Automatic annotation (TrEMBL):
Family: Belongs to the peptidase M48 family.
Co-factor remark: Binds 1 zinc ion per subunit.
Required cofactor names: Zn(2+)
Any single Gene Ontology cellular-component annotation: membrane
Residues covered by the Peptidase M48 domain: 37-221
A family per Pfam: Peptidase_M48
Entry's transmembrane regions: 136-157
Keywords of this entry: Hydrolase, Membrane, Metal-binding, Metalloprotease, Protease, Transmembrane, Transmembrane helix, Zinc
Gene Ontology biological process: proteolysis involved in protein catabolic process
Source organism per UniProt: Pacificibacter maritimus
Single GO MF annotation: metal ion binding
UniProt name for this protein: Putative metalloprotease
Length: 229
């Protein structure tokens, strides 16, 4: 039983660290955000709300520069000020902004934030277990912790890409139902690297937390084909 104690402790540590991180994030979001009040965007968000049989879809403006959208563990959806400025400057359309919100609503509806808490704890335990097992392997032992961390990072990236594909599929269905359509979703993906400055990123594909743009668009088109049958 004692030999499993480090793994159990890793599970508990992972859970505690995730909750602490989520708490810090919630406090920062509360301090740096307010409800997004834009008449043009409100019309697009109401189309999403009607498709979901909701009175409205509430979106908050997160006052930071990077271009991003996010779903908090408490279910609130945020658009960064940097992203909103892209809309104000005409680089992003209202429909494309709605596609971002639809994607984040997907993360909320599919429970990805809660699942990530479980995944994070499990990955921490897996890293500990791998490091314990590999340290007795000849030649590998001294590098056990680095190998275990790399293997766990691969798993984390794969799980994150899975969540992104699921949220994309949810957004596609919601955009289709709302009448906004999926063209805005695909056109935004085509702009994404320019908007975020991600051109020339050296991260290998298997370590990336988000799927490649062409893979995401292809997955959307597969769903479109199903709806046309």
């Amino acid at each position: 039983m004692l030999k499993f104690l480090p793994i159990l402790m890793a599970l508990v540590y992972g859970y505690v660290m995730y909750r602490m991180s989520a708490g810090r994030s919630a406090r920062e979001l509360a301090a740096k955000s307010a409800e997004l009040a834009d008449a043009t965007l409100r019309e697009e968000f109401m189309r999403l709300a009607h498709a979901l049989d909701l009175p409205r879809v509430q979106v908050f403006l997160y006052d930071i520069e990077p271009v991003n959208g996010l779903a908090a563990p408490d279910g609130k959806v945020y658009i960064t000020r940097g992203f909103y400025q892209k809309f104000r400057s005409g680089e992003v359309t209202a429909a494309e902004m709605a596609s971002v919100v639809a994607h984040e609503l997907g993360h909320v509806a599919l429970g990805h934030s809660k699942r990530r808490m479980i995944d994070f704890s499990g990955q921490n335990a897996l890293r500990t277990a791998l490091a314990m097992g590999l340290r007795f392997v000849p030649l590998i032992g001294p590098f056990a912790i680095y190998i275990a961390s790399a293997m766990t990072s691969l798993l984390a990236a794969k799980l994150s890409r899975r969540d992104e594909f699921e949220a994309d599929a949810y957004a596609s269905a919601l955009l289709h139902k709302s009448g906004i359509g999926t063209e805005a979703q695909k056109s935004l993906f085509m702009k994404l690297n320019d908007l975020t400055g991600a051109h020339g990123a050296a991260t290998p594909a298997w370590f990336m937390s988000h799927p490649k743009v062409d893979e995401r668009i292809k997955a959307i088109e597969v769903n479109e084909a199903k709806w046309q049958v």
